[in-house]
Amino acid sequence: MNDKWAKAALTAYRVAGSLAYPAAGSYVSWRASRGKEDKERRRERYGVPSEIRPPGVPLVWVHAASMGESAAVAPLVAAIAEDGITVVMTTGTVTSAATVQERLGDSVIHQYVPLDLKPCVSRFLDHWQPELAIVAESEIWPTTMTELAARRIPQVLVNARLSDRSFKRWKSAPGVAEALLSKLAHVVAQSEIDGERYHLLGARAVTVAGNLKADVEAPPANLEDLEDTRRGIGMRPVWAALSTHEGEEEIAANIHLRLREERGRLLTIIVPRHVDRADAIHRDLEAKGLQVARWSRGELPLPTTDIFLGDTMGDMGFYARLTEIAFMGKSIRGEGGQNPLEAAMLGTAILSGRYVQNFREVYHRLIDKGGAWIVQDEAELGAAVSELFDRPAARRQMITAGRESVADMGGALKRTMAALDPFLLPLRLSSRMDWGG
Question: pTM for the whole thing?
Answer without folding.
Answer: 0.86
